[in-house]
């Protein structure tokens, strides 16, 4: 399996550094377009769920809406509050954007399609994504605004907490991959994809996937974990003071991170470009698989956002430290026993499946512990005697 | 057609008499004059007896007026400011109005905030709108008007005019000059 | 030192200096439902003090009423609780009728009650939608509620000619009779409303996070609620079945069977639930009115051309959508009221905000404010 560890060959035989530049520029261009249509897609999906039409005016079915918005945002005045710390305030959008871009650098969209194929790909991803918080804290502290300060501090607390279950859930997968991979390249994302030729890792580790998805929502500040940006409380949180191009950088970061996380999740858990039949059919199918899976995950994120309210910060922390963290640790211990003693692979599915069922059961039993009966249908039972 | 309407409930006389009698029996030391409005029994007291009366109304079990509905100031021009209190008893379902007429030159009243938390904002509103002074109010700031505005718009003497003109910030009547 | 002058700094014995952090919420803030401002003093995320500021929408309702005659002034009154304009008109007309001794034809009473109850449903829909948005459900509840509100407004437009501020009631009846297709329209509308309530019930009550956020938050005891002057659904949520439609019945309510939904501990969930249950009761009332209403006059034919009231004083209260909507009226001759005072339920409920908010999280402060269901037009008069 060693060929995947090597860097991809430079296209057209040009110098290596030029190849990096060309690929990065291509990636950023693609990413920008994808982000624009993610925003459009979110507006359309949410509108559909809310019995509305969404953007309809700009182009057919409003397809050019995001471009129009982008032009408007670029043309807007870049306002800096008097109380803001100038350099911190102005560089914060870039400090949040760069980690996301660096994550995208190592993601394989198809076999060997990516900017660079790093041997420690998975490690690199969550190491770099953790840096996101620096930019958010810079925005929160530098804006000279209390909403932004609260948002930044909330974001920091939340991201530090949820980083742990996120990493532990990925660790569980890495253990499984390490047992299957030959050599020490089990953290390479390409290798992880090829290891899922027969079945995606979600089959082996459903609990890890649930924890990963929950922590991902939290890292992305999407509902129900959108506490740092809580629209109805602190009006946008850390980017409340930004306008124009800097604000759109934050928006770009948010959606690019969502896309990057979804691709990462689909590679690690859903089989990436490999499952089903990626290597047999060719790069077109591989690309379609990666993008299709990531867009499915994004659709789920939109769906969740439309339906659920927001958690409070203490409930969020309780959920992280008292539910997700113990379950991921238990899963790692179970994985360890199974893999060290080389028990059959189905046992992984069973243990993790039980864990997933327990997690869902916790949520459902709490939901069923409702204080009063539902009102639905109560009206119809009452027959009113009229005088 | 209107004969089939149900009788108007609040104006019936017999329970109203018993309220007044009960008050007289329970609070013999408080002088008041009784009256009747279109909806409620009305008690007229002097400002110095207000606190004693209301304390008795609230604490005596037979009266138990535990709900302060409303405080309305009225500017009676030459006769001075009048303050109307509407009380209600959840226990007995009695409603009562208390009329306190201040002397024209001394619009001072005791504050009821110690008895009813609800009196807080009502008194602040009456104070800013009429210039009534509620003694013992914990937070006598303007509520609806600007904090530093010292006008009393609901006085009859107050003209129907923009505040800025009265303050001298703007000149003349509002609107475009043609 | 803090750059915000209203913040207090404390120097401790060891030379350590701490600053109270204040957060200004409003007047322009998505959670304040209008132009309301509150300054929260926070310790981290915990609210330690709250100072509400109102009056941004003060339009001098009482002064205007004193300077316009009885019929003109009514137009101002449906601008108070602008989510349920008809209920305010009803209270105003009842006050004038009480002062002048005007009788209202029976059909007009039924029409009034129907429209007032539809207004109540309308206002509670607004509450449900906005409350869902406060808790953070990204407007889905809002749009669901808005669908039904549009239909109710369409009916209002058909009946009265206007959607929000109809000025349809008159002292002595209503301005015109109902349109011919009123009954089938309303029956269809009630079905639609019931569907809308069920949708919102499933969306919000069926959501674990929503229940988790609201249950047990800021419970209110009945005694304290009465002392603070809180009325309406917020009082009923504490467990006291006190509704002016039953306690001091007016209009045709004694003939109509309906229940008073109550809560248990007066927390945010109870307030939400009481309002939800009240909407069913309002639909019941409208349905019974449709069965009982008979043809007849809608405006008292013996009304004077120029309404003059020599002497009179009354405090008319009715159950507005937010609580006890009281109108104190004093007439001393002439065709204008000498004094009219609005006892607005939102105003009195909001007065208790400080006590409810202190000790909770900032995020919960927003929900508590939302659960009071204030309308700033009514608070600021």
Describe the model.
Chain A is an all-alpha fold. Chain A has one domain. Chain A has helices spanning 16-49, 65-75, 86-106, 121-129, 132-142, 146-180, 189-195, 201-204, 206-219, 244-268, 278-281, 283-307, 313-340, 346-368, 378-381. The longest helix of chain A is centred in the middle third of the chain and has 35 residues, at 146-180. Chain A starts with 15 loop residues before the first helix and ends in a 6-residue tail after the last helix. With 178 residues, chain B is α/β, with parallel strands linked by helices. Chain B has a single domain (7-167), classed as Beta Polymerase, domain 2. Helices cover 25% and strands 22% of the residues of chain B. Chain B is built from 4 helices and 7 strands; from the N terminus they run αββαββββαβα. In chain B, the strands form 2 sheets. Chain B has a 5-stranded mixed β-sheet with strand order 1-2-5-4-3. In chain B, strands 6-7 form a two-stranded parallel ribbon. The model of chain B is unreliable at 1-13 (pLDDT under 50). With 381 residues, chain C is of the alpha+beta class. Chain C has helices at 61-66, 74-77, 85-100, 106-135, 140-160, 182-205, 208-214, 222-227, 233-236, 244-247, 268-292, 345-351, 353-357, 362-372, 376-380; strands at residues 9-11, 17-19, 21-25, 37-43, 46-53, 169-170, 173-174, 312-319, 324-331, 339-343. Chain C starts with 8 loop residues before the first strand and ends with a helix. The mean pLDDT of chain C is 85. Chains in contact: A-C, B-C. At the B-C interface, β3 and α3 of B face α1, α8, β8, β9 and β10 of C.
């Amino acid at each position: 399996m060693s060929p995947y560890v090597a860097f991809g060959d430079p296209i057209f035989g040009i110098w290596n550094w030029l190849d990096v530049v060309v690929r990065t520029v291509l990636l950023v261009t693609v990413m920008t377009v994808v982000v624009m249509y993610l925003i459009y897609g979110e507006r359309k999906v949410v509108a559909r769920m809310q019995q509305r039409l969404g953007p309809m005016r700009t182009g057919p079915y409003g397809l050019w809406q995001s471009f129009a918005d982008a032009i408007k945002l670029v043309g807007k005045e870049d306002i800096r509050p008097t109380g803001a710390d100038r350099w911190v305030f102005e560089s914060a959008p870039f400090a949040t954007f760069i980690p996301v871009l660096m994550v995208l650098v190592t993601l394989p969209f198809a076999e060997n399609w990516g900017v660079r194929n790093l041997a420690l790909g998975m490690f690199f991803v969550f190491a770099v994504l953790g840096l996101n918080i620096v930019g958010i804290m810079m925005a929160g502290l530098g804006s000279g605004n209390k909403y932004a300060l609260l948002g930044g501090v909330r974001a920091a607390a939340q991201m530090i907490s949820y980083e742990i279950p996120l990493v532990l859930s990925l660790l569980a997968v890495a253990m499984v991959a390490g047992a299957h991979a030959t050599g020490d390249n089990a953290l390479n994302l390409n290798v992880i994809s090829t290891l899922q030729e027969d079945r995606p890792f979600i089959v082996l580790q459903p609990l890890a996937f649930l924890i990963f998805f929950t922590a991902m929502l939290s890292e992305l500040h999407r509902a129900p974990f959108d506490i740092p940006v809580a629209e109805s409380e602190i009006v946008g949180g850390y980017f409340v003071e930004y306008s124009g191009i800097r604000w759109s950088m934050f928006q770009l970061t948010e959606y690019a991170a969502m896309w990057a996380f979804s691709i990462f999740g689909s590679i690690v858990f859903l089989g990436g470009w490999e499952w089903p039949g990626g290597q047999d059919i060719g790069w077109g199918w591989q690309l379609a698989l990666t993008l299709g899976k990531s867009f499915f995950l994004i659709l789920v994120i939109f769906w969740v956002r439309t339906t659920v309210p927001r958690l409070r910060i203490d409930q969020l922390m309780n959920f992280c430290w008292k539910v997700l963290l113990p379950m991921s640790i238990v899963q790692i211990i179970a994985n360890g026993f199974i893999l060290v003693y080389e028990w059959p692979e189905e046992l992984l599915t069973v243990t993790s499946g039980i864990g997933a069922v327990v997690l869902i059961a916790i949520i459902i039993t709490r939901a069923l512990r409702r204080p009063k009966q539902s009102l639905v249908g109560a009206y119809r039972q009452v027959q009113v005697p009229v005088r | 057609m209107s004969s089939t309407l149900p009788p108007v409930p609040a104006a019936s006389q017999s329970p109203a008499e018993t309220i007044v009698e009960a008050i007289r029996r329970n609070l013999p030391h408080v002088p008041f004059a009784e009256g009747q409005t279109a909806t409620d029994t009305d008690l007229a007291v002097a400002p110095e007896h207000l606190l004693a009366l209301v304390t008795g109304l609230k604490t005596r079990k037979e009266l138990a007026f535990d709900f302060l509905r409303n405080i309305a100031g009225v500017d009676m021009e030459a006769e001075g400011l009048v303050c109307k209190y509407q009380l209600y008893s959840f226990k007995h379902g009695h409603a009562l109005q208390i009329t306190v007429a201040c002397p024209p030159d001394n619009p001072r009243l005791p504050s009821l905030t110690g008895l009813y938390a609800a009196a807080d904002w009502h008194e602040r509103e009456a104070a800013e709108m009429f210039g009534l002074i509620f003694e013992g109010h914990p937070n006598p700031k303007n509520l609806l008007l600007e904090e530093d505005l010292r006008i009393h718009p609901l006085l009859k003497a107050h003209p129907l005019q923009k505040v800025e003109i009265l303050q001298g910030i703007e000149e003349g009547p509002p609107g475009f000059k043609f | 030192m803090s750059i915000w002058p209203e913040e207090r700094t404390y120097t401790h014995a060891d030379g350590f200096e701490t600053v109270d952090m204040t957060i200004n919420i409003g007047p322009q803030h998505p959670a304040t439902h209008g132009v309301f401002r509150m300054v929260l003093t926070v310790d981290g995320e915990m609210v330690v003090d709250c100072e509400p500021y109102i009056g941004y929408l003060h339009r001098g309702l009482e002064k205007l009423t004193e300077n316009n005659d009885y019929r003109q002034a009514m137009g101002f009154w449906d601008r108070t609780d602008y989510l349920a304009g008809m209920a305010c008109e009803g209270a105003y007309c009842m006050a004038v009728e009480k002062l002048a001794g005007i009788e209202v034809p029976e059909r007009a009473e039924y029409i009034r009650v129907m429209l007032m109850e539809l207004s109540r449903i309308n206002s509670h829909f607004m509450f449900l939608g906005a409350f869902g948005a406060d808790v953070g459900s990204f407007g889905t509840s809002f749009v669901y509620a808005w669908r039904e509100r549009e239909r109710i407004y369409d009916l209002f437009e058909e009946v009265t000619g206007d959607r929000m501020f109809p000025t349809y009631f008159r002292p002595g009846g209503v301005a015109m009779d109902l349109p011919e297709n009123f009954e089938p329209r309303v029956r269809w509308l009630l079905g639609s409303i019931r569907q809308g309530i069920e949708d919102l019930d499933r969306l919000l009550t069926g959501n674990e996070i929503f229940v988790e956020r609201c249950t047990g938050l800021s419970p209110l005891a009945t005694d304290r609620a009465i002392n603070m002057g809180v009325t309406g659904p917020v009082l009923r949520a504490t467990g006291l079945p006190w509704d002016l439609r039953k306690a001091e019945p007016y209009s045709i309510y004694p003939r109509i069977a309906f229940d008073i939904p109550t809560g248990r501990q007066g927390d945010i969930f109870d307030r939400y639930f009481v309002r939800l249950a009240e909407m069913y009761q309002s639909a019941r009332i409208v349905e019974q009115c449709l069965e009982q209403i008979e043809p007849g006059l809608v405006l008292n034919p013996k009304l004077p051309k120029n309404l003059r009231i020599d002497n009179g004083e009354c405090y008319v209260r009715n159950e507005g959508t937010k609580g006890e909507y009281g109108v104190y009226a004093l007439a001393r001759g002439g065709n204008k009221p000498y004094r009219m005072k609005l006892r607005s339920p939102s105003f009195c409920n909001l007065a208790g905000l400080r006590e409810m908010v202190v000790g909770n999280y900032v995020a919960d402060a927003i929900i508590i404010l939302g659960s009071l269901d204030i309308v700033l037009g009514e608070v600021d008069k």
